[in-house]
Amino acid sequence: MTASARHRPVISAWTAISPFGYGREAFADGVRSRREPVLEPGGPGDPAAVVPSFDVRERFGRKKTRAMNRVSGLTVAAAQQLLADMELVPDGDREHIGFVLGTTTGSAQSMMDFTRASVTAEQPDHVEPAAVPGTVMNCAAGQAAIWHGLKGPNATIAAGRTTGLQALNYARRLLMTERAAQVLCGAAEEHSDARSWLEHHRRGGAATLGEGCAMFLLEPADSADPRSVLATLTGIDSRICLDGDLSGTLHATVSSLLKRCGVDAGRVWAAVGSGFPAGADRPEDATLRQLFGDEVTDRVPPVDLIGDTSAATALFGLASVLSIADGADHGEQDHIVVTACDDDGSVAAALLQLGGAR
């Protein structure tokens, strides 16, 4: 899916809450230094990279946070940071600001806690009513919009590890159809005992999980301040691997996207994948190296430097590329590629041009 340069969405601000800390600079410093975050034990004893010292009530106070779960807190905090970077005053016009969030299921911990309470209580309906909203997938997006007064379209996207790129595409469509003037587009994942156990059993072994929220401000190119444009969303493509050849499907997806957008592979400055699957044998990484070479693929550290962030992986990858690209000399290589693959066979790729479209 591509669009004319004038109508292509641009990214003009971004932020991240991650195991590296709070905000864009903390994340960028961690990525540039390629340092590993401090790990903590998870539910089954698997290591986990968590956001340091994050507590919902300590950050937002006790009012309106009694039932706010961790993934909602991370999302609300990231949106707060991004709105501050936009210099949007608290009572400013937010009527046409949309919000799109990617996540796996929302809070697995909230779901498990609610189910446990229903099973172990004296009666099945003896549960905390305030806990009900936290068990649904779109709770975090809804809370962020309510907390910050965002009155534009609100959507939650779930598509496995390709979620972040699908969320970008959804935000792109909101802008293209003029359903929103600006969109905050992000992806969030929490670390919890429930998620640790689910991933442990799904993978059949240990894995280092991560958590956090990466969020971007998207707006139409013709209404954005050219001086603030960090990247232009040139195109997004997605496919399903039906024959078991994940490498071939990814190769076809990226090649088709480049051809449709009229961009030669030699113009790609950096390419980052989703780190799938965990371990040494990574067909996604091998495919990107085949398409673009080692220098382009190694320019950005692996996205699982902060652990496996599941649905947030692709947008943390995009944040990593923008961190490395900031202030770098790109020459004629003015494009970046972000890909994601999931074990259900879904594949997605995004092509962005650094800075404004020329």
From TrEMBL:
> Membrane spanning segments where?
none
Q: Where is the signal peptide, in residue numbers?
A: none
Beta-ketoacyl synthase-like N-terminal domain location is 55-214
Which keywords fit this entry according to its UniProt record? Transferase
Query: Annotated Gene Ontology MF terms?
Result: 3-oxoacyl-[acyl-carrier-protein] synthase activity
Q: Which InterPro entries match?
A: Beta-ketoacyl_synthase, Ketoacyl_synth_N, Thiolase-like
Pfam families given in the database record: ketoacyl-synt
Its name, as the record gives it, is 3-oxoacyl-ACP synthase
Q: Which organism is it from?
A: Amycolatopsis dendrobii
